[in-house]
Amino acid sequence: MKSIGVFDSGVGGLTVVKELIRQLPNENIVYFGDTARVPYGIKSRETVIRFSIENILFLLKQDVKLICVACNTASSFALPVIKNYFRAPIIGVITPGVREAVYASQNKRIGVIGTKGTIKSRTYEAEIKQLDPKAKVVTASCPLFVPFVEEGWLSGEVVLDVARGYLKPLKAAGVDTVILGCTHYPLLKSVIQQVLGKDVILIDSAKQVACEIKKILASEDLLNRGKGGKRSFYVSDNPEWFSGLAQRFLGSQLKNVKKVNNV
Ligand code: DGL
Questions:
Q1: Which of 191, 140, 186, 195 is nearest to 164 (CA)?
Q2: Which of 11, 31, 35, 38 to probe ligand 1 with, by most ligand atoms within 8 A of CB?
Q3: Residue 13 CA: which ligand 1 atom is closest?
Q4: Quick check: CB of 76 below 6 Å from ligand 1?
Q5: Residue 204, helix vs strand vs coil
Q6: Fold entry, domain 3-92+207-259
Q7: Distance in angstroms between the alpha carbons of the first and the last residue of the chain
Q8: Best of 40, 48, 123 for a ligand 1 pocket test (most atoms within 8 Å of beta carbon)
Q9: Is CATH 3.40.50.150 what the domain over 94-205 is classified as, yes or no?
Q10: How high does pLDDT run on average in the chain?
């Protein structure tokens, strides 16, 4: 039985896996976290494209029927280039979040936060404008958010202070909707909401991504008809670190994370 392949630069893509398990409990999932080369957020476009192709080649060897690029940086830089190279459907995390944000925004002022790479690529901006040319898009990179989440700093004055600084331009522009354009940011939702105010809608694309994958599998008649999916987790380095963080991102513990040399 074929699996859904998911890759991310590290542990963050488990937020997408969590939603996939919730919405598609009978699907097999193979996850690859490129922990040897994380973070992608500060790497160049060429490098992120190369890493993404290597990760996809690894997943294709695991007999997958669809690939989800669960990393926003890889989706921003690599997906537009690589999606035509492979026969398997490849789904990124950008378009599903953009669709929801454009639909949700009333004042058509949309904020996007992500890694330096994601913001520099301007992929979110381009996709929002394509759906609604009149929308005003305000972006900000929040590079300290990833280490905060990985170190378990999900609240407190230091995090709030940093968030206030990063989110200032979004507040000043009066955005009513903000896309959490990085795998790690949903874990800082309460801090971000506190800074932006309770009326601002925060878009966590994981739910939409899983929903989109479900639709594609159904329309191509690829849904697993058996009961209870299997999940396998691979990393390129440090399986102990990955397992330790999995609880935070996935909500459950992970045993049997395998280290592979995929490159
Ligand atoms: N997974 C990355 C993203 O969503 C964040 C971590 C990294 O920089 O690699 O952009």
A1: 195
A2: 38
A3: 1
A4: no
A5: coil
A6: Rossmann fold (3.40.50)
A7: 26
A8: 40
A9: no
A10: 96
Q: Is the CB of 12 within 6 Å of ligand 1?
A: yes
Question: Which residues belong to the active site?
Answer: 71, 182
Question: Where are the domains positioned within the chain?
Answer: 3-92+207-259, 94-205
Per-residue model confidence (pLDDT) at position 227: 87
Give the tens place of pLDDT for each residue, 11-48.
999 999 999 999 999 999 999 999 999 999 999 999 99
Q: How far apart are CA 191 and CA 189, in angstroms?
A: 6
Q: What is the DSSP letter of 164?
A: H
108: left (phi over 0), alpha (psi -120 to 50) or beta: left
pLDDT in tens, 112-138: 999 999 999 999 999 999 999 999 999
Residue 163: band (very low, low, confident or very high) from pLDDT cuts 50, 70, 90: very high
Task: Band the pLDDT of 84: cuts 50, 70, 90.
Answer: confident
